[in-house]
Structures are given as structure tokens and as C-alpha cells.
């Protein structure tokens, strides 16, 4: 119903941004990522929105990018994940990292988020994996582990997991490398890349 709001930031809190537009202040619940990305009071800002109507409340959610809003829609489509949990997840990770963790099957990354248990995280990954991979292919997101496949790459991925890296970290590092390289070279280059990210 309301795709986006553009106006002046008149109030900003960790999970709330109020944007004044046409003399009306729209209170948008946000992730910490969005709140941090929005300028301070009196700055011009635009948020992509999602309106939620429930029996006991009407709430407006704001997102700094369409990608974050898409992640929110995907998360709230999972049984047991409501708007509050979706915002908590998006406060903890960027849309790219979210897509990578889901596509890699790294459910443990979601258990670090307050209120997300192991069963919910596993269900989230199970229900969203195909959707996220398909969405990522359509948008050209390169770091999808579906593209990380093949003998040498699989060996390198297994080695990186043994070294203590998460599946999403390892898959992300390997996704930008030539899968035709020997597994030892893939491991060496991945370790260099992972070292840069620290």
C-alpha cells in the first residue's frame, strides 16, 4: 500500500525512525542497520516501507534498501518469525550476508540473534533456501553457494570448515575464485581473503 516515504528525519532511535512528510510524522520501525544508515535529525531520508495490519495494531516498518525489505518479507513468511524477530535478524546482518547464510545452509549464524533458537533457525534456512538462491540468481548476487560446487571447491570448503570458518564465510571466500584451481590453491587464496575480512 505504501511503497516508500521520503521526507525529513524528525526523530531517530535505535529501532525507530520518524520521517515527516507533508506535515505528517510517519513512525517507522527499523533494523539497527537502517537506523544507522539514516542521517540525523533534520536530514532528508527515504525509507522503503511495509505496512502490517493486525487485530491489535497497525505498524509501519521502514528499510533503507529494497533488498532489506525483500529479506524482511522472506523472513516474516516463515512460520514462527514475526516482524520483531525479522528486524532482530536484519539488525545483525546485511541482506547480502543473510542471503549467503541461508543459501549456504548456515543456520548457526541465525542462532546468534536474540530470540532465534536452533529449531527456528533450521526451519528458516529450510523454508527460504530455494527462494533466496532463485532471488539471488535473478539479481546477479555472485556469492551464492549454489555457484560454489565442484570437486576442488568442495574439498577446499571442507578444509576451511575444519579450520573453524563458518560455512557462509568459507563459501563467500570461495565464490569469487576460479573453481578450476587446485584445492590447495583455493584454500590458500581463501585464507588470504578471509584474513582481509578480519
Task: Describe this structure as you would to a colleague.
This protein has 198 residues and is of the alpha+beta class. The protein has 3 domains: 4-63, OB fold (Dihydrolipoamide Acetyltransferase, E2P); 68-139, Orthogonal Bundle (DNA polymerase, domain 1); 148-196, Helicase, Ruva Protein, domain 3 (Orthogonal Bundle). The protein is 49% helix and 19% strand. The protein contains 9 helices and 5 strands; from the N terminus they run βββαββαααααααα. The protein has helices at 32-37, 66-76, 83-92, 95-104, 108-111, 118-139, 151-162, 167-175, 183-196; strands at residues 4-13, 16-21, 24-29, 44-53, 58-63. A 5-stranded mixed barrel has the order 1-2-3-5-4. Strand 1 (4-13) and strand 2 (16-21) form a beta hairpin. Helix 7 packs across helix 9 (183-196) and helix 8 (167-175) crosses helix 9. It starts with a strand and ends with a helix.
Name the CATH superfamily classification of the largest domain: 5' to 3' exonuclease, C-terminal subdomain
**What is the terminal separation in angstroms?**
42 Å
| Structure class | alpha+beta
Main sheet attributes: strand count, strand direction, barrel closure = 5 strands, mixed, barrel
Helicity, as a percent range: 40-55%
Instruction: Quickly count the domains.
Output: 3
CATH architecture assignment of the largest domain:
Orthogonal Bundle
Share of residues in strands: 15-25%
Output the CATH class name of the largest domain.
Answer: Mainly Alpha
